[in-house]
Amino acid sequence: MKIEENKALDDLNTFGLIVGAKYFAEVKSVDEFSELVQNETYTGNKKLILGGGSNILFTDCFDGIVIKNSIKGISVVSETEREVIVKANAGEVWHEFVLWCIEQNYAGIENLSLIPGLVGAAPMQNIGAYGVEIKDVFQELEALNIETGELTVFNLNDCNFGYRESVFKNKFKDKFFIASVSFKLTKLSSPNALYRFKTDYGDIKNTLSEMQVYDLNLKAVSDAVIKIRQSKLPDPKVLGNAGSFFKNPLVLKEKYEELIAKNPVMPNYPQKDGTVKIPAGWLIEQCGWKGKVVGNTGSHKSQALVLVNYGNASGNEIWNLALEIKKSVLDKFGIEITPEVNVV
User: Fold this and answer.
1) Is the CB of residue 123 less than 8 Å from the CB of residue 168?
2) Which of 89, 130, 133, 211 could hold 201 in an S-S bridge, CB 3.0 to 4.6 Å?
3) Which residues, 6 or more positions from 335, have their beta carbon under 8 angstroms from its beta carbon?
4) What is the rounded distance in angstroms from the CA atom of residue 135 to the CA atom of residue 253?
């Protein structure tokens, strides 16, 4: 198992920050991880699991060992006439996995097209978009204990999924290395397939109309989602960013009624538990941040929720901007917004 020293991570984080790690190892199989946990350099240092680098903000170089998850592979575990269980190893690129499922005519994750990152990160924060979350199609995952290398299987209940939350961001934060994730998807090739496309959320329906799509199919929905995301979110290869920096806050009904009375045009999404989701991007925009440049960073001109690196920003510079934005939203609306991005 090769362990590199003083590894540059510039190309391994989508903010494009110039940072490094004291030690670095790339894991391409479960056996390699088992070998790694026995290495003295690994056991004697603090650890950071790195996937696609699309949901992380480095505020400094990492004084420990960074483990890059590069375990590849996609396979069908089991299937019935209507459903299929697909296992994707954690190092697969999420969007490429979505496209693979669409090619196979497996439905369920087409609304999650173009979300950056790797498969292994998907259940960690229960990624979601346009009315779909990972928990809706999740079957199980395999994870390795960071300290011992022991394999554990987690089912849906074990993961304790919430809005952009899971047990891996709370109780088991930094405790497990996810090796694979299995999903239960619908086989649209089946003449008896029972499936309803989710096109009512966001601009999907309007975008499909603009694309002159009237006969729904998986690729059309995926293409619509891709078009919407590309119109709102900057390409990190062109302008460094980590997508949505903050989670959309959930407020109690009483707080919502107070807010809507003062802001009648405020977008809102009532939840089944009685809370109401308020778009963080709207809150940030109302505070005057959208398109604002602060030094080498700023809030993107098309989506206030996206913080960007204009070329020479440091992680601390971006984080300080995030704290200013957070304070302004709290001062104006009495709502505390929390980062979706993992700050290291």
Assistant:
1) yes
2) 130
3) 249, 251, 255, 259, 278, 283, 329
4) 25
CATH code, residues 4-69? 3.30.43.10
Query: Which option is the CATH number for 240-343: 3.40.50.1370, 3.40.50.1820, 3.90.78.10, 3.40.30.10?
Result: 3.90.78.10
DSSP assignments along 114-163, one per residue: T--SBGGGTTTTT-EETTEEGGGTEEEEEEEETTT--EEEEEHHHHT-BT
Based on the residue annotation, tell me whether 164 is a catalytic residue of this protein.
yes
Stretch(es) of the chain classified as CATH 3.30.43.10? 4-69
Task: For residue range 160-190, list pLDDT tens digits in order.
Answer: 999 889 999 889 998 999 999 999 999 998 7
Instruction: Output the six-digit token pair for 61.
Output: 């170089």
What is the spatial distance between Cα 51 and Cα 27, in angstroms, rounded to a whole number? 11
Query: Which SS3 state, helix, strand or coil, does residue 199 take?
Result: coil
List 54, 222, 244, 299, catalytic entry: 244
Q: What is the pLDDT of residue 163?
A: 86
- Angle, in degrees to the nearest 10, between helices 218-232 and 94-103: 150
CA 255, CA 260: separation in Å to the nearest integer? 9
Catalytic residue among 26, 92, 140, 340: 340
- Structure token digits, residue 178: 């996810």
Other CB atoms within 10 A of residue 86 CB: 24
pLDDT score of 189 = 82
Cβ–Cβ under 8 Å, residues 286 and 265: no
CATH level 3 topology of 74-232: 3.30.465
- Active-site residue, selected from the candidate residues 26, 164, 222, 229: 164
In angstroms, the CA 165 to CA 125 distance is 5
